[in-house]
């Protein structure tokens, strides 16, 4: 009896491997997509891309949260009492 | 237990990745992607390319989810029709529960992602599209009314509207004209196919128009919808999405579409059988080219506008 008959993958295993690789590819694509979107949303002037109503209504604007206006200074020091 | 009974135990099916991809109806998906790209390209504000591509992917996934749910629910009748018997669920390649779960999972994923990527309006429209196709069409009406294709056509008409909403965050007349074009195009497109596939549907109890109302009534309805399509397709030229390229394309192609439909209506079933449904198949083939040409023209006009800037094209709607 030839040993190769034991080494050859069964069709079932080939299909399973193909499916696993397919899922890996799909999930990798999703990760790349989410990463790219995050980069774009964090960029200047892109915070409300595809969502102009958010900019107009003042809601759902990720930009204010992620990329604050550089003109506004945010300090961690406690507020000083007025003199 | 005897050896004979052991031999009858079914070997569990191991579906491949392609079987799951086939559940998403890739050919329908390609049409969805194409019309969605046209809807987005024609919109007055273009989002960042990454956002645009991601939104299109979400819309495609949503359409695929609806397709998987359709295949899950219709597996019983698909198994008895020649055209659909080799689909993954009736062919035994994918478990029905897996098809249903894939459909539900992709529905949630696509709608949720679109809400985050673009805006809540487009996500709500995509959710409604999936619900409309999977529940209203597939579960409620497909097996209940001969107008099932008209209703199902509405689900297929939503992608450019969703894409426009994703790009602009608001609604306008233009995407709804695109909706109307696909909505009115679907019945003649599908009934032309159903004319030579009527026996398939009759055998499984789906009340397709040729089965219920007959060959002659179906041919009349094809002309009616083609006649309604002509003014709508031409009128879309005078919306924000239209332009000279679209106007010329829509006029020429719609006239040819109507002409072919009239030729088809003048025949009877005996004449059709004698030449193996040559005219019906020609109309079916041309209908695919028709939709492709019109939505390509929308894109070309958008490109023209981007190159030349506003050139005083009359926007009446």
Characterise the protein shown here.
- The complex is a heterodimer of chains A (83) and B (317).
- Chain A is an all-alpha fold and 83 residues long.
- Chain A has helices at residues 4-7, 11-42, 52-57, 62-66.
- Chain A is built from 4 helices and no strands.
- Chain B is mainly α.
- The A-B interface holds A 12, 15-16, 18-19, 21-23, 33, 36-37, 39-40, 46, 49-54, 60 and B 14-18, 20-21, 45, 47-48, 50-52, 54-55, 57, 116-122, 166-170.
Task: Considering the chains and any ligands shown, give keywords for the structure.
A: 83 residues; 57% helix; 0% strand; B: mainly alpha; disordered N terminus
Tally of DSSP helical segments of chain B: 15
The largest sheet of chain A is: none
Helix content of chain A: 55-70%
* Shape by Cα distribution of chain B: flat
Structural class of chain B: mainly alpha
Number of helices of chain A: 4
Gyration radius of chain A, in Å: 26 Å
Q: How many DSSP E strands of chain A?
A: 0
Give the percentage of residues in beta strands of chain A: under 5%
What string, H for helix and E for strand, traces the elements of chain B in order? Answer: HHHHHHHHHHHHHHH
How many extended strands of chain B? 0
Taking the alpha carbons of the first and last residues of chain B, their distance comes to 75 Å
Largest interface: A-B, 21 and 28 residues
Uncertain segments of chain B: 1-10
Beta-strand portion of chain B reads under 5%
On the 0 to 100 scale, the average pLDDT of chain B is 91
Please sum up the structure shown:
Chain A is mostly helical and 83 residues long. Chain A has 4 helices and no strands. The longest helix of chain A has 32 residues, at 11-42.
SSE inventory with pairings:
The complex is a heterodimer of chains A (83) and B (317).
Chain A: H1 4-7, H2 11-42, H3 52-57, H4 62-66
Chain B: H1 3-7, H2 17-23, H3 26-42, H4 49-73, H5 75-78, H6 96-117, H7 120-141, H8 148-157, H9 159-168, H10 173-204, H11 209-212, H12 215-235, H13 244-265, H14 269-274, H15 278-308
Helix pairs in contact in B: 3-4, 3-9, 3-15, 4-6, 4-7, 4-9, 6-7, 7-8, 7-9, 8-10, 9-10, 10-12, 10-15, 12-13, 13-15
